[in-house]
Design a protein that fits this description.
222 residues; mainly alpha; 8 helices
Length: 222
């Protein structure tokens, strides 16, 4: 099997991964700038969408309660981190892939640090309603639920693809990941604890972390 020598030039896929990571990072920074500057069209769209979904949430208590269960238990960031921890143990015990296990744990940890740092820097207030259906703490941007789900699901999907799982397992994993990432973002908007751009920011930043982590892993283990 061909292996790259120390003096080999970077492979084309490395350049593609780097460019993709850069584009995602640029989009994330652009959205962050618009949120921090309180760009009027964005703030107006956030308010219109959030107001509409909040009225629906108040009128649909059964669906709202289902969203609370999903967001608080199934798609909670700590649930996602426990899933990541299980994957780390599997990598160490069953695959003897200690470097990849450490890479996965570090990528998720750095994603959390990035998320909390941006929250503190932007300090965006959450939506306030006279008749709230749920509550949340800390600043709004980006959505921690959306970003954590994107990072964990994205990295685990890439690892499954890398290990060559069967077609049925792969399709099931992609479907579960897509429903989880999209679903958790929509529940945060529905419950009135995030503006739509908070969720979009979580998705963008989470995808950026995944792309950067995959790029680093490919550099270390082509």
């Amino acid at each position: 099997m061909h292996t790259s020598s120390v003096d080999s030039p970077p492979r084309p896929e490395h350049h593609t991964a780097a460019r993709f990571t850069g584009v995602l990072a640029l989009c994330s920074v652009l959205l962050l700038t618009l949120v921090a500057a309180r760009w009027s069209p964005l703030i107006g769209a956030d308010g219109d969408i959030a107001g509409t979904t909040h009225r629906w949430a108040v009128d649909e208590p059964v669906l709202t309660q289902t969203c609370r269960i999903l967001t608080d238990w199934v798609w909670d960031p700590w649930t996602m981190r426990l899933l990541c921890a299980a994957a780390v143990v599997w990598l160490v015990v069953r695959q003897a892939a200690r470097w990849t296990a450490a890479w996965l744990a570090l990528a998720v940890a750095l994603g959390t640090v990035l998320q909390q740092g941006i929250k503190a820097a932007v300090d965006r207030p959450r939506p306030v309603w006279p008749d709230p259906v749920d509550s949340a703490h800390y600043s709004a941007f980006p959505s921690g639920h959306a970003m954590t789900a994107t990072v964990v699901c994205g990295l685990l999907l890439w690892l499954l693809h890398r290990h060559g799982v069967g077609r049925a397992v792969w399709r099931t994993a992609v479907a579960v990941a897509a429903v989880s990432v999209v679903g958790v973002g929509l529940t945060r908007i529905w419950l009135g604890v995030h503006w739509p751009s908070d969720v979009l920011g979580g998705w963008l930043l989470g995808t950026t972390v995944v792309a950067a982590a995959v790029w680093v892993h490919r550099l270390r283990q082509p």
